[in-house]
Amino acid sequence: MSAPCSADAASPAARNATRVGFFMAGFGLSIWAPLVPYVRGRIEMSDALFGSLLLCIGIGSLSWMPLSGVLVNRHGIRPVVLASVAFLALALAAVALTDSIWVLGLALFCLGGSLGVIDVVLNIQGVLIERETGRRHMSNFHGMFSLGSICGALALTLALSLGLAPETGTLLMMALIVLANLLVARGFLRDRAPAGGMAFVRPTGMVLLAGALCFVVYLAEGAVLDWSALYLTERKALDTALGGLGYASFALMVTIARFTGAPLIHALGTARVISLGGLLAAVGIAIGLFTEHWAFALLGYGLCGLGCANVSPVLISSLSRQQIMPVHQAVTAATTIGFAGVLAGPALMGLVAHYASLTLAFGLVALMLAGLVLGSRRFAE
């Protein structure tokens, strides 16, 4: 049985803390992007070595995320969030200050690991809040993460453009993350499993299916993030300097859809949100493939973001309604499986593009998104 959530899960303080936590997690993740040129300039390394270092972020996430449910079971949500924020701050400081490749690799590993734990634990808190209040909040929570990602990149970019040193700018952003989480710390729940609860539970079929569907959505996001610019510039004759507009269109629609999606989710229900979202995302990718002009391709990536936006939030929310597996472990397992798609997506795209074509690779992504229709039937309410 799932662990009972603490009485304050329905309080405004808990909801606000979850929103701030998600926002600052996205904020912290996006700080890395503006730092890349400065890190490359400070530490001499080949492109191959830098690519290997980037894997440390994903390896850290996948290594630490499975521990999230165990930590929450034993210590509660609040200590785990605050400890992870401390690790995140230390990792960002090391990234900004070190001139050692080994320290940079360790810092990126801890960056990915701490953000992975924060993501899982905040999803656990979000599920507990939804169960206690009887209302859907997860899309809004995930929307705060998307908004935080945009604001973090813009904030550090602005600081750097005003002449602030990268080290100073990063430490300032780090201080904002720590301060924001401390200000809302009382809203992080103390929920934990009953004494003697099992640390690990084998995921049920429904939890594995939720994770697999999240995997497809995250794979699509990773594909658009890493490959849309190349596809737009090489196949749609978009200027190289504007290649990032593909992912920008995707991310913008994800953010808008998550903040405005609650009424639609309430009206359609979980299964229809998954199936219609998958179909809309698949159509968006198809438009990007078959249209000749880059403007319509941007529209396609925006539609893909619109379709994907609320699929993972409703899948995570659905785990509160199963009674076989404790909520902490269920959310941990599904989120970890889903996140693997962010790492697998770009790699699989690269393999298909190498042996066939990038067009075929995006076509396979569209087919996988359309396949969400089949998996959605298990989530009918």
UniProtKB/TrEMBL annotation:
It comes from the Bacteria. Its main location: membrane. SUPFAM superfamilies: MFS general substrate transporter. It is a multi-pass membrane protein. CDD domains: MFS_MosC_like (cd17393). The chain crosses the membrane at residues 20-36, 48-67, 79-97, 103-124, 145-165, 171-189, 201-220, 240-261, 273-290, 296-318, 330-349, 355-375. It is found in: Membrane. GO terms for cellular component: membrane. The keyword Electron transport does not apply. Gene3D superfamilies: MFS general substrate transporter like domains. The keyword Transmembrane helix applies. Keywords: Membrane, Transmembrane, Transmembrane helix. This is Transporter.
